[in-house]
Amino acid sequence: MNGHLPAALSAQITTFVIRLRTRHGFLVGPGEAGDALRAAGMVDVLSKRQLRDALRAVLIAQPEQGRIFDHEFNTFFRAEGSPPPPELPPLLPETEAPGAEQETETSPKKQQEGEGQAPAPAPPGPGEEPELTTVKAQPQGESKEDADDSGGDFQTVETRLSPNAGAGGEVRSEDGDLRELLRAASALIRAVELGRSRRLKPLARGPKLDARRTLRAAARTAGDPALLRWLGRPRRSPRFLLVLDGSRSMGRDAGLLLRFAQALSLRTRRVEVYAFSTGLTRLTPHLRRALPGQPLTLPDLGEAWGGGTRIGENLLQLARQERERVNRDTLVLILSDGLDTGEPEVLERALRDLKARAGRVIWLSPLAALPGYQPVQRAIKAALPHLDALLPAGSMEDLQRLGRRLQQRN
């Protein structure tokens, strides 16, 4: 039974891969599904043990996934009439449909002890994510100890870590600030320093005379080299890879950064734009079809918009999809508040992959624009060693200063 697989078995294996991804959060997609089919074609599929071992070698990325995989395999491929194995808890927490609960709450002043404070949340159970993440913005020049002792004012941002799937739906954003965003995009393109090309190319002015082209031009003027031709090494054109966090915690900032991505795609064709929430989708075709001067309207983005946040998983998927196109001329821009429900280790793995191949990796955070911001979020702390810069992106002014800030770090 080696080689070509029956169509029914191929469909079963593909459905099994989808089951691992949707029910347990395995980082598998079309590429892994194809690998699984090829692996199954190399063994005797009538042997349940050989089939299980072949799929196991392809679909498991972490040791702790082995127990979940074995249980799902025995459940999915069990013989007719045999009792199902006992149910095990999923690798990721169970999710509920997105509710109407407020995602982000901002309190301008610290509450006095004992006055209107909400009860402390219960500790998370085994395998559950903590319910709240707090980011404190202290006044400039004031230490944490001073702030605690003085009882002074500081801003607290609380966000509910939601594993819920993206709400999807049509995405609509006004374009009243497109002109300013186009200027910011142009400044960013000019600010990216990538060095010069290794190859000599024809230029209007250059350090080296192009004798062959000069002689050809002289043939038109009776042998008189009236026009000299030059060679030089032009600056390499940058390529941009934008990854936009479309989760609920981003709020209005997601709309501003989406319009910035549109402005950048209008200024250069060397740009790719992705959006993610609990899933990942490519926005580049939609942004290129959008008409300047019209409100930006995108179709239903499914799990890529309006849900919880899984930064690491989606960046890892992106690193695999863009592996062939990310090179030393690529500037990766991650536009996210860093409030993540995923594991920091997955995020580190994805950023290591991107950093090894990209020219620069920049994280733009709306929260970093708060006075006295400290990068205390789990995702940001895990990402910092692999970033070239963490910069604010909470307003139009931040985006307009982005080019100058990058130049200062060159």
Mean pLDDT: 75
The chain-level structural class is alpha/beta
* Largest β sheet strand count, sense and barrel closure: 6 strands, mixed
Say what the CATH topology of the largest domain is.
Rossmann fold
**What series of H and E elements makes up the topology?**
HHHHEEHEEHEEHEEHEEHEHEHEHEHH
Molecular shape = globular
Low-confidence stretches: 85-164
| Whole-number tally of structural domains | 3
How much helicity do the residues have? Answer: 25-40%
Radius of gyration: 26 Å
Count every helix, treating DSSP H or I runs of 4 or more residues as helices.
14
Comma- or semicolon-separated keywords:
36% helix, 410 residues, globular, 3 domains, 15% strand, alpha/beta, 6-stranded mixed beta sheet, 3-stranded antiparallel beta sheet, Rossmann fold
Report what the structure shows.
The chain folds into 3 domains: 7-76, no CATH class; 171-192 and 235-408, von Willebrand factor, type A domain (Rossmann fold, 3-Layer(aba) Sandwich); 201-232, no CATH class. It is 36% helix and 15% strand. The chain has helices at residues 7-24, 30-40, 48-59, 65-76, 144-150, 178-191, 211-218, 252-267, 284-289, 311-321, 344-357, 378-383, 396-400, 402-408; strands at 104-107, 132-137, 155-160, 171-173, 201-203, 208-209, 230-232, 239-245, 271-276, 280-282, 296-298, 330-335, 360-365, 389-392. The strands form 4 sheets. The chain has a 6-stranded mixed beta sheet, with helices on both faces. A 3-stranded antiparallel beta sheet has the order 1-3-2, with no helix packed on it. A 3-stranded antiparallel beta sheet has the order 5-7-6. The termini are far apart.
